[in-house]
Amino acid sequence: MKTVLEFNQVSYAYEAQADGNSVVSGLSFSIREGEFVALIGSNGAGKTTTSKLMNGLLKPTEGSVLVCGAPTTELKTSAVARTVGMLFQDPDRQICQNTVYEELAFGLRLRDLSEGEVAARVEEAIEDFGFDGQAAPFMLSRGERQLLALASVVVCEPEVLILDEPTTGLDYRECMHIMNRIKKLNHAGTTVVMVSHDMELVFDFAGRVLAMAAGRLVADGAPETVFRDASVMRESSLVPPQMIELSLRLSEEPENGRAFAHVASSYEMLQVLKAAGFKGRRVS
Length: 284
Ligand SMILES: Nc1ncnc2c1ncn2[C@@H]1O[C@H](COP(=O)(O)OP(=O)(O)OP(=O)(O)O)[C@@H](O)[C@H]1O
Prior knowledge:
Number of domains: 2
Strand content: 15-25%
Bound molecules: adenosine-5'-triphosphate
Helix content: 25-40%
Distance between the termini: 54 Å
CATH superfamily of the largest domain: P-loop containing nucleotide triphosphate hydrolases
């Protein structure tokens, strides 16, 4: 699989910062085509800064960021945006047109496509997402607006999709609707990088986790491995998903705790409990 994003010893300092200190430093990792990567860490760890370095909105102060092999410092931000699409936390920062149709067409028209091609792609997205093309975006619910913002990015077919807290402010149904859409895109080949504070969501959807603390990368691995690493969780001030926490606590018990050491889902929990003779009766 080809490498779509590569960070080599990347540091970034905002000019506005009085002390001139880097808010991210020494970041080195690469992301391959088709991965679903979650970027996690407490407030101020540097996740949003890192995601903006990925799509060329920010250029590194030190080191290099390569998008499909090309350094972002040598590319125009608009050129990076063709490969790396970004969905912001607040859809109202992205939506700027009066109808759903026009909103979907907006990004495509910036790409010098013929009007016929724009219309074909917009119609396909309307059909695929189940939108009403003539609806006014600001009359839609928060969840529908987030879906429209996602569709407007996706319609341009970026190779990499960056999502900054894509489910903030959504109820559970809306959240699953968006996440299942993203999962479908990922299965179809789009590389996904998701910034999230929701560890349950990360555990359910991501295949790899990059954990940050104070601007540095403190872990890079499979979600289950990272979430079971107590020192990483402490350093990045995060609490693992409930099932991992329960498994860790039960595995500390001397009698039959070891059996719980690798439990990562409710199904596996049930299997271990059944094997231990649990019949579903109330335990006093
Ligand atoms: N435009 C800016 N100018 C100056 N400093 C900034 C700017 N944006 C962010 N910072 C600082 O950079 C650091 C990292 O911020 P960043 O938003 O990347 O972290 P984050 O992990 O995404 O946090 P959160 O989860 O709260 O969004 C913080 O200390 C923040 O105050």
